[in-house]
Amino acid sequence: MKLLILGLGYSAGFFARAALARGWEVTGTVRSAERAAELSREGIRTLVFGGFAVSTALAKAVAEAEAVLVSVQPAEDGDPVLQRLRGDLAAAPALRWIGYLSTIGVYGNQDGAWIDETQPVKPGNARNTLRVAVEQDWLALGRDTGKAVQIFRLAGIYGPGRNPVAKLREGKSTRLVKPGQVFNRIHVDDIAGILMASLARPRNGAIYNVTDDEPAPPQDVVSFAAELTGLAAPPEVPFSEARLSPMAASFYGENKRVSNALVKRELGYAFRYPSYREALRALTAAGE
Q1: CA distance 180 to 184
Q2: Which of 77, 75, 36 is CA-nearest to residue 55?
Q3: In the chain, which residues have pLDDT < 50?
Q4: Cβ neighbours of residue 114 under 8 Å, at least 6 residues apart?
Q5: CA–CA distance, 235 with 248 (Å, rounded to integer)
Q6: 110 contact partners, CB below 8 Å, separation of at least 6
Q7: What is the model's pTM?
């Protein structure tokens, strides 16, 4: 079984390792030769693809793939993978599953309401407007070719090395308080688990929210990390007094509670970390 991952970054790397553990042959693309050499030492065949010319090796990997995961940021003019590889993907004879990693940011602000995949998208900025367009382009490929294309809308990603416990230990943690604000989160192990579950049950045109059970105020998560580690929590800072980058401010402009019921119901997935509490306890026990 051959899996091709286009854009072998943090989240996709956990999926690659999960697939390797289940006997898949995994090929991934990165943007630098140095990163390719590093991942190759883990047993992942790695190619360099910067969204420009398609090498013979990459064209061959697409032609042989049974599953393709796309984890590449859109460019201003669209998706670089579709621009360079659409024809190759359409022609790939064994390809039966394509996954595209998107974001719950496409829903925009919902004033704290619970929503699911039936909620119309309402992107609040150019970045997420582009994501919506790219999602539609991938779904069109599925309709045109009959190959099963799935969209995975990810919540805020965390895991080993990138989490509130690690930030607290590094002295980089903050507790910014905006009353009523909550964020959805997802541990990388559960991203990998949901993708593996989808591989077993392809459905062309499927859209899944990939998020844990409990949207929570960010300051509560930091306070819980402080309790686990015995470190002092940083002081609370009112949102009105915060100096945020435009990117950070855009996140706080969106408030929603995103349901994961569909991945449980349709894919039969049982979350390893249903909330940040289980995940932070495990990360702390592992020495984060």
Answers
A1: 13
A2: 36
A3: none
A4: 257, 258, 259
A5: 19
A6: 119, 122, 254, 255, 256, 257
A7: 0.96
